[in-house]
């Protein structure tokens, strides 16, 4: 990308040539024909070298003044092109090949060989340009790769060659046609005979973009990030492949894809702070969904036995490397199965996606090798906490104060710390167990692990465990210390479901009241801010009273799965346009 570091010089020289052409030439088509394979000569008198520039300024990204002046120059070129009768924003271009197809089809050419019978046409963005006297090289990039454009002055009038140098800048989108040549140095090139500016770029590509430390700017201007760093686009190609493979997997098991409402009358299916909007015609508040669960279960009630939905979820909570206010999940529900079935399904989905994207089941994530070979580890939450801390939470029964006291004695939980404050607000032994698990165990689960049998107090939608009182048939899947999936044997008893929902609302309201007493400006946006209201979804409870078959269900985070399979450290790297703070 040598030319990306030298765009200023090329742009300014191009502008000078442009003005000379304007004064001396009449309108003629902006197309070049170069049919000769003659070697370029080098006896042309070279222009004097440009004045020295400030090296310190060159080492930084384009300043606002530079950007504005370059934009003005390029706008002038647009005016000049239109004044000559050419439209610099084309309607279409007929291309015969992609750059990758050309590279593959003509790789057999010998160095210096020209394939005159080839008549090919390509289109793409100019990402580099080099001028050597009577010879101009440009590099074009399309969606599949790059190829060099090769053009000689000897086959053009002086005027045409100067137009080529004057009007084309790095960043322009160009259509080019001609034959194929492999240079003496072995570079496959389109031996250009015709070209047309398809889109005139007004803004320059950033200087030394690969070294840019302003990560926030890369997320805000993802389009520039993708132009300057082609590997960024590969992440989104992988994401598309993952979603496609998930759909193929679900269809192979007989599931059908359904769509459920994004705007809902009650935010249910999870405990999360919703986004609220207002519908003018209905004159009522609506909520952006925080889960697809409750409507998918309604489909089971209606008689569809295997359903899934891939969709956006919206939660008005914190932003971090792991959390974005809108994210993508797949939720799956299967009648007449239990959570053991969903463990097998989770393994199947992840393994198939890994094979589709990597062709193997061992992947590197941030320097750690992750083995996705089956079967994956399966442990209960109680056993993992006991292994990490030595505390057996089964021994406390319903004595929540004894559980809190034992947890506060653990190294790493200090009096007055956020962990200690969270422990104080725990209303049951199950809540204390979960807090200790999140603090001491979660981050250690690097290799794929199913964590089984969660307390009933934190699992309002899961069926009671058939063997252990106080627990539910629920698992969460962890990889690289992150929750990837969450699944249950689904609760189908409508009376039990109503009771749990009511208890969940009481707990939420108690936390809301406690938080209101100590509310401060730091609480805004906190994931533990309980200022929002939680209400019963009466229609869902009504649907259960018509009878839902025994079923299992699972939610799988697609963004986090893509993070794993693309070795991405932040969720912002796998979401094309993540939510960001407003720039000051």
UniProtKB/TrEMBL annotation:
EC number: 6.1.1.6
Residue numbers spanned by region Disordered: 37-68
Keywords: Aminoacyl-tRNA synthetase, ATP-binding, Ligase, Metal-binding, Nucleotide-binding, Protein biosynthesis
GO cellular component: chloroplast; cytosol; mitochondrion
InterPro entries recorded: Aa-tRNA-synt_II, aa-tRNA-synth_II, aa-tRNA-synth_II/BPL/LPL, Lys-tRNA-ligase_II, Lys-tRNA-ligase_II_N, Lys-tRNA-synth_II_C, NA-bd_OB-fold, NA-bd_OB_tRNA
Sample GO molecular function, one term: metal ion binding
Reactions accelerated catalytically: tRNA(Lys) + L-lysine + ATP = L-lysyl-tRNA(Lys) + AMP + diphosphate
Top EC group: ligase
Record keyword Ribosomal protein present: no
Residue span(s) of domain Aminoacyl-transfer RNA synthetases class-II family profile: 236-578
GO biological process: lysyl-tRNA aminoacylation; plant ovule development
Similarity remark: Belongs to the class-II aminoacyl-tRNA synthetase family.
Entry protein name: Lysine--tRNA ligase
Native organism: Panicum hallii var. hallii
